[in-house]
Amino acid sequence: MIQLGVNIDHVATLRQARYRGAKGLEAGSEPDPVFAAHEAELGGADIITVHLREDRRHIQDRDLELLTQTVRAKLNLEMGATDEMVGIALKHKVHMVTLVPEGRQEVTTEGGLDVKGQAARMKEVVKKLKGGGVTVSAFIDPVSMQVEAAKKAGFGVCELHTGAYARVFAECGGDLRKTELSAELGSLATSGGQVGASGMRFNAGHALNYFNVMRVARLPGISELHIGHSIVSRAVFVGLREAVREMKVLLVGRSDSVKE
């Protein structure tokens, strides 16, 4: 059954808008991503995802430390392939690391990781993380040479970047009769098939929402979807637990997915 990973970075973004630059956060600073993770789990999240960025723009070290102690679902740490982040991931013994490209000026991660262009470094980082018992995923564009490079580097998982699909879906109003949309979905399907055939787990994420998610969720062999912004946005109106529950219902097709 497909699993839902909920990215709670933007809960921290809201907090940091008030407590900007406060790495040693003031007592009572809110909203707390740790509480958000608990609410997401109660709504049916199978995975909690956070991105600890080099500049600590949203998730802080304190958040990750507490999440490793309190999250009952799988904890997925998105991060750049730096020595600092490798050390943090191994120290906290997170369940999974997703290696992503990281830019100081971007609002969120834009574009997939160039595994092929950094083959030696990726192989080194993957080896260290796997040696510490961490499952390692590559966040890549749905391109054959990147899937092949991820396999050679030792990754056990590929998360395909769905940003291009989401953009074209919006432009076409979700009409699959439009060749550009069917082409983007086809690229995801083809690359996903290559991921599975290579013995890696096929995940996907980026810019997925309540309107465009179903086409991706139905791709053959898909294991996990990682979704953040749309769920946190929906939570403004209905609460995080309900927002996660609504997304989970779309994915698994039943209304009893809230965890007791």
Terminal CA distance reads 19 Å
* The CATH homologous superfamily: Aldolase class I
Number of domains: 1
Major sheet strand order: 1-2-3-4-5-6-7-8
Residues in helices, as a percent range: 40-55%
What is the N-to-C order of secondary-structure elements (H for helix, E for strand)?
EHHEHEHEHEHEHHEHEHH
For this structure, the CATH topology is TIM Barrel
Kindly report the average pLDDT value: 93
CATH architecture: Alpha-Beta Barrel
Parts with pLDDT < 50 across at least 5 consecutive residues: 254-260
Structural class: alpha/beta
Portion of residues in beta strands equals 15-25%
What Rg, in angstroms, do the CA atoms define?
18 Å
- Which class in CATH terms? Alpha Beta
Number of strands: 8
Q: How many separate helices?
A: 11
Characterize the main sheet.
8 strands, parallel, barrel
Give the overall silhouette: globular
What does this protein look like?
This protein is of the alpha/beta class. The protein has a single domain (3-251), classed as Aldolase class I (TIM Barrel), CATH 3.20.20.70. 47% of the residues lie in helices and 16% in strands. The chain contains 11 helices and 8 strands. α2 packs parallel to α3 (61-70), α2 (33-43) packs parallel to α11 (240-252) and α7 runs antiparallel to α8. The longest helix has 19 residues, at 179-197. The protein is globular. The relative contact order is 0.15.
